[in-house]
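Hey Z.,

So I finally got round to the cytidine-5'-triphosphate thing we talked about over coffee. Here's the setup:
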Amino acid sequence: MNRPAAARSAWAIVPAAGRGERFDPASPKQYAPLLGATVIEWSLRALIAEPRVLGIVVVTAADDSRWPAIAARLNSGKLRHAVGGASRHASVANGLAQLESLAAPDDWILVHDAARPCLTATELAALLDALQQGAGGGALLAAPVSDTVKRESDGASAATLDRRGLWRALTPQAFGFARLRQALAHAARTGIAVTDEAQALELLGDAPRLVAGSAFNIKVTRREDLATAAVILQMTGAQRMRIGQGYDVHAFGEGGHVTLGGVRIEHPRGIVAHSDGDVVIHALCDALLGALGQGDIGLHFPDSDPRHRGADSRIFLREVVALMRAAGLRLVNADVTVLAESPRIGPHRAAMAANLSADLGVSAALINIKATTTERLGFIGRGEGLAASAAVLLDVEPPSASQPGS
Ligand code: CTP
Ligand code: MG
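And the result:
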């Protein structure tokens, strides 16, 4: 199949079938508690949120009892499951088998350790960008070695390696589906215990591209790494916030009411619009879509679609909220301004906030609705129409927050 690089879809495999011998064999590290969730939930976060990743196979040990409850809590349609093998590469091979009927031979397969909870959306995007820009032989996140590296002999430093050109391999690592399967089968035949996928590809003579990842993308290997991961996740919290703004205008026309924030308000003039012309909700939808990086309301609910004629805009809002949840994000707060000479907003403010609160799934206290006239200036001042602007802030939903009682 000879599709252009940009058309190659991406899938992910997250091997999570290890025993964590260096961590605590009695409690596998991928399920260790970390900031109100488990390590694996954090490790999956960026993959779930990245729209270019179509599906994720989590590979767990045959006797694993923890994954089903976590999968239910994450509640992402992207998640699939496979049972792991005795070695990491056997686990990855089982994950590949699970993708057999879904992925094309040249689709990208990203392999990401369940024990790397600090992967950021930015790093993941950089890897996918490198693939789209023509890293045909695959690519891996990696960080240059900055310490002097010693070779040990009987507890003593026997030699110093030249660290120039040395990189630490991180994950995700991404390769074409068929080539990765071939490489893993080849490594298994040779009996070489590869410790990452790139090594299996190297054994075939491939040279995957090194994409600079973050030194914060650590692997939880020993107990003490958990504290480091918690600090990193807390510190990088700001990068997980998203801001969005929206603006919408409608002209007054025939009719005897306007709809604002889902509230029907009697008014001497109606609104000219394809839908119900609710500028508050349209501005809010655009702000949310902006924060999600998913275009605007016209893209998702085109005027040309007869289903949207006279539509209750709250339906649009609920669909946008579903997109937000699918991206693993939640609303921190929303601030809306209505610009109109009339109607007066004050008497309807609480009812509008109650509607928005119900649709957004947050307390009405997090939704502020303001109104202003434009001092009789411009089209709004002349009473030709009205407008609304909205600003929203989103952040990553703490993985367990959606679990009642947790
Ligand atoms: N892994 C796997 N199947 C195996 C071995 C490892 O899916 N048979 C996964 C681990 O769960 C982990 C990733 O591969 O997410 C990286 O491996 P590693 O850090 O070595 O984890 P463990 O093998 O669990 O740890 P240890 O080597 O300390 O036992
Ligand atoms: Mg291991």
